[in-house]
Amino acid sequence: MSPSSARSFRSAALASTLALAPTAALACPCGPGAAPTTALTSPDESFALRASVSALTEVATWNERGTAFRTADDVRTRRALLEVGAAWRPRDTVELALLGGLAYTAADQPGVTVRAVSAGDVTARARWDALMLPHTRAALSGALRVPTGDAVSGSLANGVAGLGLGTWEFALGGEWALRDRTSGEVGVAFEAGVRTPTTSAAGGTWTPGPRLTATVFGAWRATRELTLTGSASQLVELDAWRDGVRVPDSLARRLTVALGANLRVDRLQWTFAVALDPWIDGLGANATATARATVGLTWLR
Questions:
Q1: DSSP per residue over 108-174, as a string?
Q2: How far lies 251's CA from each of 29, 63, 109, 176, 297, in Å?
């Protein structure tokens, strides 16, 4: 087979696969419950610009033993979070994305009032759609998180995931889903990240523990334009290290459940989502629980 014939054969095979599997263009489960590996585009799209605005409020905290405590009535922490992203597909199976954001925080407690704007970290991510069949798909991803933001807590579970971590993070992830050709899909995703050492505010070296994120997700195409989504995501950050010594009981974890709806109108996709960290004993540790509502808009080409 000549090189030109081989290229024609591959193009025809890809076109046939996409024709058999219309969920290849299924609206992404974007929003607060989306897995960190989630693509912004589908294989038949080449470019995306996305922006979302979220309102968050802290409702509870977990201590190191996993006991949940409801936030006191005279303590309030609220945030308005802006998240932006851009993605480009140089080829049908590869997506390159750049993600970032910032937040406005209003915190009030007896005798203390805080109003602040915090920049978020920038994450560069590459994703490869390794398998795209009519009834199943799989993808692999790699991400580099750059500490461009204001370091908030050195932990994603004890703060807002889009804000400053205070250190570099290198992550690898994967995603696998079963899908119906017309109705939607269900799947699982995972990502594991390692962090570099940094200098702590008190002096010395501080290294946040490795991060593990596991997500179960589903998407149902209610109509050609409307897709309903749901997910449950578990975030775990292992014990941190200070000056080469492991910090006992510093493991952090948090469970998040989310529901959303994506409305596709021509090249625009609207996202509406709500998410909650259930403040139940045992579902978190060394973490804050938040309630969150998100509205997002993605332009696709």
A1: EETTEEEEEEEEBPEEEEEEEEEEE-SSEEEEEEEEEEE--S-B-SS-STTS-TTBB-SS-EEEEEE
A2: 29, 10, 27, 27, 35
Q: What is the mean pLDDT of the chain?
A: 86
Handedness of CA 162, 165, 171, 174 (dihedral sign): negative
Quote the pLDDT of residue 293. 96
Q: How far apart are CA 221 and CA 236, in angstroms?
A: 31
Is beta strand 68-70 parallel, antiparallel or unpaired with respect to 122-132? unpaired
Q: Cβ–Cβ contacts within 10 Å for residue 15, how many?
A: 12
Tell me how many helices (H) and strands (E) the chain has: 1, 19
**DSSP states of 216-249:** EEEEEESSSSEEEEEEEEEEEEPPPEETTEE-TT
Q: Which CATH architecture has domain 3-300?
A: Beta Barrel (2.40)
- The larger pLDDT score, comparing residue 151 to residue 175, is at 175
* CA 188 – CA 148 distance, rounded (Å): 30
**What's the predicted TM-score (pTM) here?**
0.86
Q: What amino acid occupies position 27? A: A
Query: How far apart are the C-alpha atoms of 123 and 193, rounded to whole Å?
Result: 12
pLDDT tier, 161 (very low <50, low <70, confident <90, very high otherwise): low
